[in-house]
Amino acid sequence: MSGHFVTGRRLADATLAVVVGALVMTVAAFDADTGPLDYALIAVGSAALAGYRAAPRAVLAVTTASGSAYVLHAHPGPVSALPVFAAVHTAARVGHRGLAAAASGVFLAAFMATGPTSQEVVERAMLLAGWFLCAVVTGLADSNWQAYLRQTEQRALEAERTREEAALRRAGEERLRIARELHDSLTHSISIVKLQAGVAVHLARKRGEEIPPALLAIQDASGEAMRELRATLELLRGDEPTGTPALLVERACAAGLSVDLTVTGEERPLTATVDRAVYRIVQEALTNAARHAGPAKVTVELAYADDDLTIHVADDGTADPARPTTPGVGLTGMRERVTALGGTLHAAPREGGGFEIRASLPLGEAG
């Protein structure tokens, strides 16, 4: 709730108290028997209305006591009931129906006791009774309306959340469907191509024949296509990490890449978003090294500090600072992940040859 809104409500409450007090005092001024005590009682009962939001029961008690004392002392007309009428309405509005009815009865009893019973007094008392009944009923109606609005808003929020969940579920189902289609239609065909090319290369070598360059290109391209397809299928099946940086290094070594992993600092659990980012950064860095660095040695370092985690992946491959590389989809996605977490990323060729990626991710309290 903003400060302007709170100030506006307080101003409205004070305005209500001033208007009610002014009306009652104006009518009382035309009565020659009105004295300083009466004006004081009117002022107390009216001023109390300014606090009806914070303490409706206390306001109801103060206005009822001061209003009853005023009518018993000065014998005024029905307008004197305005402060009590307002307090009864606000008390019923917040659920104090019994107290509102009791306060109405106390004030009406005081009003009836102002003089000998006459038709005029009875008519005025009945008029005030109708007023107080209306105050209680309208307070209840307002309370029910506010509850209805809250329920409607809650149902709208729930419906919106349900729609978002349904949309995410449908998107996930569609990704899985596409992954199955790609797996069934493309994986088998590419595997056959790779297998046939491999058999042809093997037979050519066995016979001592020269292997056609086109055949070697087909073998390499089919293997690359299989790796790309597997990576695509992993992304389609979900964005959650399927392991740890250590497992990524182990897989890279099994695939023939020379990789060393070093962890410094106090290793500790990470939040899901940071953990996912670390996994994807190491994964993309190792993929780039395998594709572009050639027969290079790669080092992966995870450095834990008090407030951040630094991921440093470097190779001694063929990258040259004199020939800057153009960031592809992988590096662009890596930078977006790091930026979204408030970190920094450096990805560029190293002096002396090779390529390095250095990402710093803030941990804060989440780590």
Average pLDDT over all residues: 77
Distance between the termini: 31 Å
Shape: elongated
Total count of strands:
5
Helix count equals: 10
Largest sheet: 5 strands, mixed
Strand order of the largest sheet: 1-2-3-5-4
SSE ordering: HHHHHHHHEHEEHEE
Q: Detail the poorly predicted runs.
A: none
What Rg do the Cα atoms give? 40 Å
Strand content: 5-15%
- Please give the share of residues in helix: 55-70%
Structural class computed from helices and strand pairing: alpha+beta
Overview of the structural elements:
The protein is of the alpha+beta class and 367 residues long. Helices cover 66% and strands 10% of the residues. The protein has ten helices and five strands; from the N terminus they run ααααααααβαββαββ. It has a five-stranded mixed sheet, covered by helices on one side. Strand 2 and strand 3 (308-315) form a beta hairpin. Helix 3 (56-74) runs antiparallel to helix 4 (82-93), helix 4 (82-93) packs antiparallel against helix 5 and helix 5 packs antiparallel against helix 6 (119-207). The protein is elongated. It starts with a helix and ends in a 5-residue tail after the last strand. 25% of the residues are buried. The model has no long low-confidence stretch (mean pLDDT 77).
